[in-house]
Amino acid sequence: MKVAIQTLGCKVNQTESASIEGILISNNYEVVNYTDNPDIIVINTCTVTAKSDYQSRQLIRKAVRSGARVIATGCYAQLKADEVSSIEGIDIIIGNSGKTDILNYLAKLKNKDGKPVTDVGPPDASLTNQFYHSNRSRAFLKIQDGCNFSCSYCTVPLARGKSRSLARKDVINSARRLVNDGYKEVVLTGIHIGGYGLDFTPQSSLADIVKRLVDNFPQLRIRLSSIEPLEIGHEIISLIVDGSICPHLHIPIQSGSNNILRSMNRRYDTKLIEQVINNIITHYPNVALGTDIIVGFPGESDKDFNDTVNLINKLPLTYLHVFPYSMRPNTEASQLNNQVNSRVKKSRIKLINEINKMKKKTYMARNIGRNLDVIVEDKDLTSRYYRAISDNYLRVILMSDAVAAGDRLKVRVTSLTENGMIAEPLN
User: Fold this and answer.
1) What is the pLDDT of residue 234?
2) Dist CA 36 CA 38 (whole Å)
3) Distances (CA, A) of 188 to 57, 134, 185, 235, 236
4) How far apart are CA 424 and CA 427, in angstroms?
């Protein structure tokens, strides 16, 4: 039987979809593309914005029209099962906790009576499933789920539940499986990986599990997916300096206005942001630093936005992910006055994107002439050369056909083009 999986949203969702794929393949299902006439389509939905809600509904409707049996899961299905069940032709709706039980839900498709089966319980109270995702030459390992914080714009705690961590032995066993399968890099993912181990007795930490991974797999390149500003202390910086984790951090700051940060319930101010980022740069000047910015949060004045522009211009950031604020039901921010209209949001996003282009180009130019540690991913579609990703998160085209996907090697960056960094392998 042929099954297609379509995924919206974050790396955690992508990781979980790949875990579903692994379960299906190991049980003799054929996992295919959506265009290959699948018998069943699994839609792993997202609800982080109104746009992702819309995209989730569109994917479900398109899947139904294809004639396949359709299962919806993910955060949109978790929080808005009633909306999903109103889509004519859907077969089964399951919450985030049901993803690992996909085989039982597939069995229920045989007994469909015309009404969708809805099974959306609360998120799991613990994390026992070993989700991992292999993507080209790198692997994504989910070590944590859920969030204990209450940012005023966010529905993730409702969809994912409280923070819980994968047991240390399960993290090590999952990493061992990936290393044995030949993967050279593991990206540690989760909703809030900075909270890893805080639910253990006695408490542990993200730095502790990284050290255990380094001790067990010294040949493995380890990358962190995203970490909050307040969670980047001496231990995390030391792990970058000593080469235990990649010199690349994604730090979501969301705004450069103290007024907006307070309204978002973000627990820090711009002074702390500057201190944290400058401290990282002081200890490792060539680190790649990315961030998330939300534009058009309720009450964001021209001054608030200009404060954000001034801060990101000042900070040595490498790239920016910018999002328009999207009102989410059952959040504190949805009740705020002074909602910013879409025209203003679009104008502000355009400006931030221009800054993003400049910062990316500046950082890439700084790496010309440097030697980088890269892992080869695949062939570039426009040439005979291979694409690779460096430890500091640069996309590199290798001027050599004497490499293969999965190789890890040292290269020298020779130039910068519109298509990215050009590099040559070192002898």
Assistant:
1) 95
2) 6
3) 30, 12, 10, 16, 14
4) 9
Q: Is the pLDDT of residue 255 over 70?
A: yes
Token readout for 414 is 């020779």
Cβ burial 34-45 (10 Å sphere, 16+ → b, else e): beeebbbbbbbb
Reduced to 3 states (helix: H, G, I; strand: E, B; else coil), residue 126 is: coil
Q: Are 45 and 30 in contact (CB under 8 A)?
A: no
For 371-425, CATH number out of 3.40.50, 2.60.120, 1.20.950, 2.40.50 equals 2.40.50
* Three-class DSSP category at 170: helix
Give the CA angle between residues 18, 19, 23 to the nearest 5°: 115
Q: Could you give the CA distance from residue 224 to residue 193 in angstroms, rounded to a whole number?
A: 8
**Beta-bridge partner residues of 145:** 164
Structure tokens at 305: 């936005």
Residue 4, classed as helix, strand or coil, is strand
What CA–CA distance (Å, rounded) separates 94 from 75?
10
Q: How far apart are CA 210 and CA 202, in angstroms?
A: 17
Q: Tokens for 255?
A: 């705004």
The one-letter amino acid code at 262 reads R
pLDDT tens digits for range 263-307: 999 999 999 999 999 999 999 999 999 999 999 999 999 999 999
pTM for this predicted structure: 0.91
* Domain boundaries along the sequence of the chain: 2-119, 371-425
Contact 389, 405 (CB under 8 A): no
- Pairing mode, if any, of strands 371-379 and 408-417? antiparallel
Rg (CA), the chain: 22
Give the residue carrying structure tokens 């979980």: 16
Tokens of residue 307, six digits = 């404060």
Contact 161/125 with Cβ under 8 angstroms? yes
Which amino acid type is present at position 329? Answer: P
Whole-number Å distance between alpha carbons of 81 and 411:
50
Pick the CATH number of 2-119 from 3.30.70.1230, 3.40.50.12160, 3.30.70.1400, 3.30.450.20: 3.40.50.12160
